[in-house]
Amino acid sequence: MAKMNCWEFKKCGRQSGGAKVAELGECPAGRDKRADGLNQGKMGGRACWAIAGTLCGGRVQGSFAQKASNCMECDFYKLVKTEEGPNYVGSKELMKKLA
């Protein structure tokens, strides 16, 4: 079974073809090929906390350094971490892969 990506969990509408792309732009997590497959997600869909420009609380967020503490409290982040267990690709590893 495919695992849920951030745009499915958050229902933000910023994924490719999503309802809010015209208003808010397409989310970088939905098109980041460098993150494809990480934490078993599509593009950056399960690594969104490490990708600049994602949406949270109705606002576009900045860099990882600016949003990290907020993301670590996110229900989706916690879900991914739990689902992936020992296979979880954490922030440090993600930042290396996304560099």
Can you walk through the features of this model?
It is globular and about 40 Å long. The termini are far apart. Strands 1-2 form a two-stranded antiparallel sheet. The chain has one domain. With 99 residues, the chain is mainly alpha-helical. The longest helix has 10 residues.
What's the overall geometry?
globular
Strand content: under 5%
Name the helix and strand elements from N-terminus to C-terminus, one letter apiece: HHEEHHH
Counted beta strands: 2
Instruction: Specify the number of helices.
Output: 5
Could you give a short account of the major beta sheet? 2 strands, antiparallel
* Tally of structural domains: 1
Order of the strands making up the biggest sheet? 1-2
Radius of gyration of CA atoms, rounded to a whole number = 12 Å
Look at the helices and sheets and give the structural class: mainly alpha
Low-confidence stretches: none
Return the average pLDDT rounded to an integer: 90
Estimated helix fraction: 25-40%
Intertermini distance: 30 Å
